[in-house]
Fold this sequence. Notes:
Blueprint: H1 2-6, H2 10-64
Amino acid sequence: xxxxxxxxxxxxxxxxxxxxxxxxxxxxxxxxxxxxxxxxxxxxxxxxxxxxxxxxxxxxxxxxxxxxxx
Length: 70
Protein backbone atom coordinates (compact mmCIF):
# COMPACT_ATOMS: atom_id res chain seq x y z
CA UNK A 1 0.00 0.00 0.00
CA UNK A 2 2.84 2.40 0.76
CA UNK A 3 4.30 1.86 -2.70
CA UNK A 4 1.01 2.85 -4.30
CA UNK A 5 0.73 6.11 -2.35
CA UNK A 6 4.46 6.91 -2.42
CA UNK A 7 4.45 8.43 -5.90
CA UNK A 8 1.26 10.44 -5.50
CA UNK A 9 1.06 14.12 -4.54
CA UNK A 10 0.10 15.01 -0.96
CA UNK A 11 -3.32 16.33 -1.91
CA UNK A 12 -4.33 12.98 -3.35
CA UNK A 13 -3.46 11.20 -0.10
CA UNK A 14 -4.94 13.76 2.29
CA UNK A 15 -7.82 15.31 0.30
CA UNK A 16 -8.99 13.18 -2.62
CA UNK A 17 -8.95 9.75 -0.94
CA UNK A 18 -10.90 10.86 2.18
CA UNK A 19 -13.44 12.71 -0.02
CA UNK A 20 -13.95 9.59 -2.14
CA UNK A 21 -14.33 7.50 1.03
CA UNK A 22 -16.97 9.93 2.37
CA UNK A 23 -18.86 9.83 -0.93
CA UNK A 24 -18.81 6.02 -1.08
CA UNK A 25 -19.41 5.31 2.63
CA UNK A 26 -21.23 8.53 3.58
CA UNK A 27 -24.65 6.93 3.85
CA UNK A 28 -23.31 4.10 5.96
CA UNK A 29 -21.48 6.49 8.26
CA UNK A 30 -24.60 8.65 8.63
CA UNK A 31 -26.72 5.60 9.44
CA UNK A 32 -24.28 4.38 12.08
CA UNK A 33 -24.01 7.83 13.70
CA UNK A 34 -27.79 8.22 13.64
CA UNK A 35 -28.25 4.78 15.20
CA UNK A 36 -25.76 5.53 17.98
CA UNK A 37 -27.33 8.91 18.76
CA UNK A 38 -30.81 7.36 18.75
CA UNK A 39 -29.66 4.58 21.06
CA UNK A 40 -28.06 7.05 23.48
CA UNK A 41 -31.26 9.11 23.50
CA UNK A 42 -33.35 6.02 24.28
CA UNK A 43 -30.97 5.04 27.09
CA UNK A 44 -31.21 8.58 28.51
CA UNK A 45 -35.02 8.48 28.38
CA UNK A 46 -35.01 5.04 30.04
CA UNK A 47 -32.75 6.24 32.87
CA UNK A 48 -34.91 9.34 33.39
CA UNK A 49 -38.12 7.27 33.52
CA UNK A 50 -36.66 4.72 35.94
CA UNK A 51 -35.30 7.52 38.12
CA UNK A 52 -38.69 9.23 38.14
CA UNK A 53 -40.41 5.97 39.00
CA UNK A 54 -38.03 5.33 41.89
CA UNK A 55 -38.56 8.90 43.13
CA UNK A 56 -42.37 8.58 43.01
CA UNK A 57 -42.39 5.15 44.68
CA UNK A 58 -40.09 6.31 47.49
CA UNK A 59 -42.13 9.49 48.01
CA UNK A 60 -45.40 7.60 48.36
CA UNK A 61 -44.01 4.74 50.45
CA UNK A 62 -42.32 7.09 52.92
CA UNK A 63 -45.41 9.27 53.27
CA UNK A 64 -47.80 6.33 53.81
CA UNK A 65 -45.61 4.44 56.29
CA UNK A 66 -43.20 5.68 58.88
CA UNK A 67 -39.47 5.09 58.89
CA UNK A 68 -39.68 3.19 62.17
CA UNK A 69 -41.42 0.30 60.40
CA UNK A 70 -38.14 -0.54 58.61
